Amino acid sequence: MTEGPKKVAVIGCGMVGVMTARYLQRAGHSVTLVDPREPGEGASFGNAGCFNPSSVVPIAGPDTFKQVPGYLTDPLGPLSIRWRYALPILPWLIRYGLAGTPGRIAAQADALHALLAPSLEALMPVVADAGARHLVRRDGILIVYRTARSVESDARNWAIRRAHGIEWEDLDEAALHDFDPNLSLDVKFGKYVPGNGHTVNPGALVKAIAASVHAAGGVLVRAVARDFRFAGNRLEAVVTDAGEVAAEVAVIAAGAHSKPLAAAAGDRVPLETERGYHVVIADPAVQPRVPTTDSEAKMVATPMEMGVRVAGTVELAGLELPPDWRRADILRKRIGGLYPALAEGAAHGNVTRWMGHRPSLPDSLPVLGRSRRSPDVIHAFGHQHVGMTAAPFTAVVVAELVSGRPSPIDLAPYRPSRF
Ligand SMILES: Cc1cc2nc3c(=O)[nH]c(=O)nc-3n(C[C@H](O)[C@H](O)[C@H](O)COP(=O)(O)OP(=O)(O)OC[C@H]3O[C@@H](n4cnc5c(N)ncnc54)[C@H](O)[C@@H]3O)c2cc1C
Known about the structure:
It contains 14 helices and 21 strands. By secondary structure, it is of the alpha/beta class. A hairpin with a 2-residue loop joins strand 11 and strand 12 (234-240). It is globular and about 65 Å long. The chain starts with 6 loop residues before the first strand and ends in a 17-residue tail after the last helix. The structure holds flavin-adenine dinucleotide. The site of flavin-adenine dinucleotide has 42 residues, from helix 1, helix 2, strand 15, strand 18 and strand 19. Flavin-adenine dinucleotide (FAD) binds at residues 11-17, 34-37, 41-44, 47-50, 52, 224-225, 253-257, 276, 278, 311-312, 356, 358-359, 381, 383-389.
């Protein structure tokens, strides 16, 4: 049975938090957003901006343990572990490796697909409402390869995509360079995925949605959420460093910082962060036609309104250690191998660098659903590499739960107790 309007506190103003706030309002609930920062200043600020329903392939695969040593010993490689963090991250890494068995991958891909497939359909009404249509493009993405061997080594991932109904166009060398004449001639194979989209400014998109939450009566409280106050198993308030926020329901959407809040709601989850970096080349000599993934360098070059954003790399170093800007400089060095005309601008031009915290569970799935401690605390965090894409439908699910309706998808794969 549908329940009446509720007073909901949404903790975290990233893409997941603001989308959730907006869907809650659309369902008739009143919303207070709690965040010490401006909306869209966390991971949702600096990502590659892609809305990729095609990203159904879990991060850990059967070859993960074989590939990791090679990545770690390559100074320009896509993965690094800070030695000071090697021991703390070990239990997560073991779980991560064990998540990559064929049976588990198949189940994770199904669960990713359930969240990602409706992404753009759930996103666009909110974007239109926020007057932010100009920030979203729906013209697909490109994935490129240099050798037939690397195409072959990715075949398993394309089979997973095919099994989930993802459509793409294979481009041979001529068609690829016709599609984007600025690509390096070393790049010989392409796959164009027309169903994906991207934002030309992820931070601005989150801020625009947050402004629409405010315009619809939502309140933003500048505070760090620390705990919950319960009466029995019912929520009464979110406890923050600036006092209490009275709420009948709380949603934990604090991204990579959600672990202590989840524990306060009775759930111990192995949330870690896969730190990522970007560089933005302002005034670029050329722009990619669409977001273009270099499958060998494992980085994405996205055409954005502030320039070309080159994003990627995974660094396992927790939440506290300072950025290692050499990781961003790898992106700067490698972009000329994808777009030769960008090499000069990347080396000597107007370039900004950024580091952000992807919120990641070892099995590539978020934590989504009610907490163990109380039905009034709902988890919505841990969207790892696909949080921009997964946020809109996560928001739909949370709004349904808060309204007392059944979830539109089976929530068992995302339950906090699965670890
Ligand atoms: C380099 C890179 C590239 C990426 N590219 C893509 C992409 O192309 N497509 C895609 O779908 N995904 C991408 N991602 C992943 C995506 O950015 C994240 O999954 C997503 O932004 C997570 O959103 P979020 O709202 O959960 O977290 P965040 O955006 O990090 O927001 C969390 C918010 O919670 C607040 N907060 C933290 N602790 C508290 C507290 N105690 N109380 C109150 N507030 C708190 C923070 O201040 C922050 O505002 C990429 C990530 C990186 C790093």
